[in-house]
Every structure is written in C-alpha cells, then in structure tokens.
Amino acid sequence: MPGDTVEVVKRCSVCGTEIGRFSAKKENLFLYSHERVACPICQRETPELREVAGRTEARERETASLPRQNR
Ligand SMILES: [Zn+2]
To answer: Is residue 71 included in any domain, yes or no?
Structure first.
C-alpha cells in the first residue's frame, strides 16, 4: 500500500534544529536511535532526535495553545 512510508525528521536533541529528513517504511521505523548528528547551531555533535513528520505537525496544531514541552 502507498501509505506504508512515513517521513522521519532528524533533529538536534539539544536545540531542536532540523538536520534532515528521510523516508522509512513503518515496519522498519526506528524512532529511538543512538546516532549523533553534527548540529550547525550547537557547533558540535549532539544526540539525534527522530520524529515522524506528519504526526509532529498534527500534534503541534492540537497543542498550539499549550506550552511547548520536551515530551
Ligand atoms: Zn543543536
């Protein structure tokens, strides 16, 4: 089915800057990684944070009036 693939956003877990995106099949989706990314804002390697792109945008719409939280 075409809906099997989701877009995953890689972010710096320190400042939240988007580093890049990639597509993954849902059954192969690993949101918890121990990889590090080179963040241009922090100017060092930081632990990466992965989020499903569509789900994040939906959640931000739902909680637009609430204070932003780290999980
Ligand atoms: Zn950063």
So the answer is: no
